[in-house]
């Protein structure tokens, strides 16, 4: 009776301690090495409302002064929902350019951190319209 119960408790405590130690060791092991790659996503909107811009061009141009990034030039288009998603980007400095027909282009320098997701949403301004031909007041003859 009592001897068997004490031996069983000792084995159970030992098993629990072993499981706890194994859990701590597993938690200390990194799940994966850093890849040096990043991801960028976001939405593109029209400036006057919350309307998304489908088919907008999103470009990421790598830093021309960086040997590692100067050849990086990625182009994506926004979906029907106005979303873009660019994966497997090397970390570093970029210029982000966004353009859509009828809107002023948008450009901003940015830095993508290693193994990170960068979310950037842009709101494009309507392009100014140029009058065609001379302006004519009502009642005047050009």
Describe it:
By secondary structure, this protein is an alpha/beta fold. The protein has a domain at 37-124: Immunoglobulins (Immunoglobulin-like), CATH 2.60.40.10. It has one helix at 2-28, and strands spanning 37-46, 57-62, 73-77, 83-90, 92-99, 106-112, 117-119, 122-124. The strands form two sheets. Strands 1, 4, 7 and 8 form a four-stranded mixed beta sheet that branches. A hairpin with a 6-residue loop joins β5 and β6 (106-112). It starts with a helix and ends in an 18-residue tail after the last strand. Residues 12-32 have low confidence and may be disordered.
Full CATH superfamily name of the domain at 37-124: Immunoglobulins
Distance between the termini: 116 Å
Number of strands: 8
| Helix-strand sequence | HEEEEEEEE
In which range does the helix fraction lie?
10-25%
Structural category is alpha/beta
